[in-house]
Amino acid sequence: MSLAMRPPTGAVPTVLHPTVLHPTVLPPTVLPPSVPHPSGLHPSVPVSSPAWAAGATASHRTVAPAGARRGFVPAVALLDLVLLLAAFVIAHVVRFPWELASVRPRSGWFEFVVAPAIVVVWMLLLSAFRTRDPRIAGIGGDEYRRLVTASLVAVAGVAVVAYAAQLDLARGYVAIAFPLGLAFLALGRKGVRTVLARSRARGEHLQDVLIVGDAEDVRYVGARIAAAPSAGYRVRAVVTDCAPVGAEVDLGVATAPVVGGIEDVLVHARAEGVSAVVVAGAVRGGHARLRRLGWQLEEHGVELVVSSPLADIAAGRVHERPVDGLPLMHVETPDYRHRAGKRALDVVGAAFGLALLSPVLAVVALAIRADDGGPVFFRQVRVGRGGAEFPILKFRTMCVDAEARMAALQSENEGAGPLFKMKDDPRVTRVGAFLRRTSLDELPQLWNVLTGSMSLVGPRPALPREVALYEDFADRRLLVTPGITGLWQVSGRSDLDWAEGVRLDLHYVENWSFLHDLVILARTVPSVLRSRGAY
Asked: Which residue from 77, 71, 74, 20 is spatially nearest to 45, judged by alpha carbons?
């Protein structure tokens, strides 16, 4: 038996001060292609953490044993210590290179007392800010934010103590050691994320969870958890009053059995040996019922996780406003006031790119002309900001009569919604296949950026026929200027289905910031080099 899916209708106003995780933690991949969900996804919000503490109950069914979870923090702490020591050693070599060749190196109290003390304090601050918390390992940006905050506090603390005690610190040494240490720590966590993501993709180091709620909410949240093993969860079973015991709930890439009704959540959690219970949607009994459930689960070492109704909203737009003990979550409206800065970046970036890449542009143009003698450029009408149409400019990668031949290929269309996609499109020329793989066909769009019809970063420029089929809130993509690259570009490009592409574009529009653009530009380079989804 398969349960139908629609976006959750209920919201869970928690009284346990949740922290909203970054929405890309659980990317939805199973939305109906004709109905892109306007709010995207439901990030999970941990509200208690006894499952990670010593003494947490685990059964033979739990994928990530308690021992493995307990060993995670010491392993990361050891890595941090090694990296910080390496940073201070390198800083010493750079700052005092002459000591390497000296028979009698300088012996100072700084190297043997202060430097180790700074490392110890830094390590303690990394623990105090919970940068090694297994619940944030490998997902979202919270881990890096805590890492930077702890490091800045360490710098400030050293500066204050040195000033108050009138210590003559080797300022050049410290100026090298701190940035280097922070960079090493960030790279170390990146390595941990890579290893953790690979192991979770193999089904290792996952928390088994029980999902509780109505049929639609369970299906919606469960599908996203199942599609994102990197978040660290695996759906063991479902508890709902909307399906008989034994029914299999389709979660897209997996299934989960219904083991009982909502009245017996604690019984089923213990029987299944899960380490967390995920509440999807509203719970009958409201705040009091949810609070009691959290207390009951805590007694048995089971974590309570609440699916937040704040969907696809960046953490920077969410602020807590406590009212008589109730934490109300205030969501700010999208801010588009800094478009002048974005435009300045576009003009400078496009002009610099055209000047720097002009030899490449010339070689590509000659190769296209030599391949089949046809025109070098391909112009196509796209829809930009505010619905204004403009001619997009690309290097031609298909045969001259590609548009006329498209009707005959409709039966082989691999795309969903209004998109036409084929991995092995016969209309693509030999040179065109190379240009698409390397994304060189997109370079002429720098001219579109220079003229203002496009931006370096933005939603994918849509075709008029796509815009005509927009439903719900998909037309919000037109609130900003389309871009050469964007979240869709760095998340898979043509490998994404229509609904997922719309969701990513809407997320960009709703949460735009200048810093976000810079991050996407930085992520574009490795994405292009990997050629993922480029065809």
From this structure: 20
d(CA 300, CA 460): 48
Domain that includes residue 363, residue range: 339-530
Residue type, 435: L
Q: What is the model's pTM? A: 0.60
Nearest to 17, CA basis, from 329, 332, 330, 285 = 329
Q: Look at residue 422 and give its three-state secondary structure.
A: coil
Q: How close are the terminal C-alpha atoms of the chain, in Å? A: 38
Q: 436-442, long-range: CB within 8 Å, 24+ apart, which pairs?
A: 436/397, 436/534, 436/535, 437/531, 437/534, 437/535, 438/528, 438/531, 438/534, 439/528, 439/531, 439/534, 440/360, 440/364, 440/395, 441/394, 441/395, 441/396, 441/397, 442/394, 442/484
Asked if residues 240 and 258 have their Cβ atoms less than 8 Å apart, the reply is yes
Specify whether 296 is located in the same domain as 387: no
The two structure tokens encoding residue 214: 């109505």
* Judgement on whether residues 367 and 426 belong to the same structural domain of the protein: yes
Q: Per residue in 306-350, pLDDT tens?
A: 886 666 666 666 767 777 777 777 777 777 767 888 999 999 999
* Cα gap 278→286, rounded to integer Å: 15
Residues 94 and 166 in one domain: yes
Ranges of H-type helices in 45-135: 66-95, 109, 115-128
**182 and 231 share a domain?**
no
Distances (CA, A) of 126 to 14, 88, 157, 189, 301: 29, 17, 14, 12, 25
| Residue in this structure with the two tokens 């202060």, named with its chain if needed | 114
State how far the alpha carbon of 269 is from the alpha carbons of 30, 238, 317, 409, 427, in Å: 27, 10, 34, 51, 55
Residue at 216 is within a domain: yes
Residue 49, domain CATH: 3.40.50.20
Domain tally, the chain: 3
* The two structure tokens encoding residue 57: 């109950």
The label of the residue with tokens 């392993």 reads 75
Q: Which of 146, 143, 275, 255 is nearest to 196 (CA)?
A: 143
Six-digit token pair at 468?
Answer: 């005509």
List, for residues 475-490, the tens digit of each pLDDT value.
888 889 999 999 888 8
Q: Is the pLDDT of residue 10 over 50?
A: no
The pLDDT tens digits for 246-286 are 888 888 888 899 998 888 888 999 899 898 999 987 777 67
Considering the chain, what is the average pLDDT of its residues? 78
Instruction: Tell me which of 303, 331, 359 is where a domain ends.
Output: 331
Clarify whether residues 158 and 87 are in a common domain.
yes
* Residue 455 to residue 349: CA distance in whole angstroms: 10
- Let me know if 22 is exposed, middle or buried by CB neighbors in 10 A (0-12, 13-18, 19+): middle
- Residues 298 and 158 occupy one common structural domain: no
